Structures are given as C-alpha cells and as structure tokens.
Amino acid sequence: MAKAIFLDRDGVLNVERGAYTFLVEDFEVCTGVPHALALLKEHGYYLIVVTNQGGIAKGLYTKEHVLACHEKLQHACGHALDALYMAPAHESVSSSIARKPDSLMLEKAIAKYNLTPDQCWMVGDQLRDMQAAQKVGVKGILVGGQHPAGTYAMQAKNLAEATNLILGKGQK
Ligand SMILES: [Mg+2]
Fold first, then answer.
1. Active site residue 10
2. CA of residue 168 to ligand 1 center, whole Å
3. What's the pLDDT tens digit per position in 3-34?
4. Is the peptide bond before 148 cis (omega within 30 degrees of 0)?
5. Domain 3-166 falls in which CATH fold?
6. What is the 8-class DSSP label of residue 29?
7. Could you tell me the residue ranges of all domains in the chain?
8. Where is the chain membrane-spanning (predicted)?
9. Which terminal CB of the chain, N or C, has fewer other CB atoms within 10 Å?
10. pLDDT tens digits, 47-80
C-alpha cells in the first residue's frame, strides 16, 4: 500500500502572484515549504505535484519554462518531489480531462505508484483542486487566506499547517 500527497503548485508551493508564473526569476518558493515536504516524505508519502498550465495552450509560455521553474523548486526542496504532472490545456483553446477540476493527473499517479486513494491527500488553494481530489476519493485540504472559514471541510493557512493536520498534530 502506498500513499501520496498531491500538491497544487501556485499558492501552495510557490507564491501566487495573481498572474501566470513561468519565469524562473518570478518563481518564489513559499517559506516553510521545504521543511513541510521533508516531514511528509519522512512519514512515507510520495510527493506529487499536479499543476494546471493553461498558459501553454494559450501560447503565453512553453513547457520548457515550466520545467525550468520545476527545477528551481526541486533544488529548493532537496529534490523531495517524486513527480510533477502538468496539464497544458485550457478550455479557451481545447478541453482536457487532465486539467483540474478533472482528475486525470491524479489517476495517472495513482496507477503508476499503486496508491491507495483514501490514504492520500490533496493540498490546493482552489476549489477545483478539491474537486479533482474528490473525483478519485482523495481527501482535500484547502489552503490560502482567500477563502473564508467554512468554505471547505478541511482548511489550513498554508502547507505547513496542512502538514500538521495530515500528520495528526492539530492546527499548531
Ligand atoms: Mg493554485
């Protein structure tokens, strides 16, 4: 039996800028993320990023831009991430069942890593992240300050606080 933490990217692992983040110099890893990832890994979770990158379909940037940002992310967290899936589609160009709130990225990882969905968690800062998780029976934790309390069943301020919830250490 294997378990994983699915991680949205912008607003969870790196600072949400309110615009597409595709240049390495704009990609800023959030405080506390490397430590939280290390803790989760210590507890036996695969760490799997699932990120919508609709800017690729829109022609705003390329897959190579995304990969360069992911290299910076891996470097910052000691290469703790086991896999990074991206959904390059955007509904304004072409639809895709990979793009969240659909769940193909999660389904691929569940198959590849032989994951038990009810042992897995998704941490994201948008409801579409929670919806993608629900579709495959994965529990979600909604993070970020933009959602009022009560928006979702489980909420946390950031990945560090979500990690405490996952590891059963309460809110603090
Ligand atoms: Mg996000």
1. yes
2. 24
3. 999 999 999 999 999 999 999 999 999 999 99
4. no
5. Rossmann fold (3.40.50)
6. B
7. 3-166
8. none
9. C
10. 999 999 999 999 999 999 999 999 999 999 999 9
